[in-house]
Amino acid sequence: MRIVLVGPPGAGKGTQAAFLAKNLGIPHISTGDLFRANISQGTELGKQAKAYMDAGNLVPDEVTIGMAKDRMEQPDAVNGFLLDGFPRNVSQAEALDEMLKTEGMKLDAVLDLEVPEDEVVKRIAGRRICRNDSAHVFHVTYKQPKSEGVCDVCGGELYQRDDDSEDTVRKRLEVYHSQTEPIIDYYKSQGLVVTISALGKVEEVTGRAMGALPRP
């Protein structure tokens, strides 16, 4: 099964992608992992991406598309994949269609995780990270530490990252609405979009998604 996962920041795409990929027996291909792998391995595409990133510029579509193409051609992706973070705009979606068409393949579904905007802001702006270990994550509403501002695990100070502030989150949402959301309409015209609510417990959302996906 070949699936594209879309949704606003804070929708839980990374978490759901990992669970869904495991349940479906297909690789989870995320843009972040693609960039890290290519840069750490020193591939030509990785060098190009790093040059743009080091200069504070966005990585061009053709570099991202090239990385995605290379990854989808790996043996473990022959029978399917779950794309997370790619495509992120209509031009990338069109390029993906062309790639798949060339190989005689097509997408099976585009899974749209739906979350109200206020909930997105609440989820992200409420996060608090431990200064000693960024893997220790708490939340002012959903996962409160025993002592305010103190990490339960190591006693480190909890803080809010700059990119988790409400103003930054709302700017990220604006970018999502202007750049990525249009791919939902693009795929709706192909009858591929499956929309589910991303509210509730992780396993509830996963169950909803598994039930909504077309059967192979």
Overall description:
With 216 residues, the protein is of the alpha/beta class. It has a domain at 2-115 and 178-212: P-loop containing nucleotide triphosphate hydrolases (Rossmann fold), CATH 3.40.50.300. Helices cover 47% and strands 15% of the residues. The chain is built from nine helices and eight strands. The chain has helices spanning 13-24, 31-41, 44-54, 61-72, 90-102, 117-125, 166-180, 182-188, 202-212, and strands spanning 2-6, 28-30, 81-84, 109-114, 127-130, 137-139, 158-159, 193-197. The strands form two sheets. A five-stranded parallel sheet has the order 2-3-1-4-8, sandwiched between helices. The protein has a three-stranded antiparallel sheet with strand order 6-5-7. Strand 5 (127-130) and strand 6 form a beta hairpin. Helix 3 runs antiparallel to helix 4 and helix 6 (117-125) packs across helix 7. It is globular.
Write a concise keyword list for the protein shown above.
three-stranded antiparallel sheet; globular; alpha/beta; 9 helices; five-stranded parallel sheet; 8 strands; 216 residues; Rossmann fold
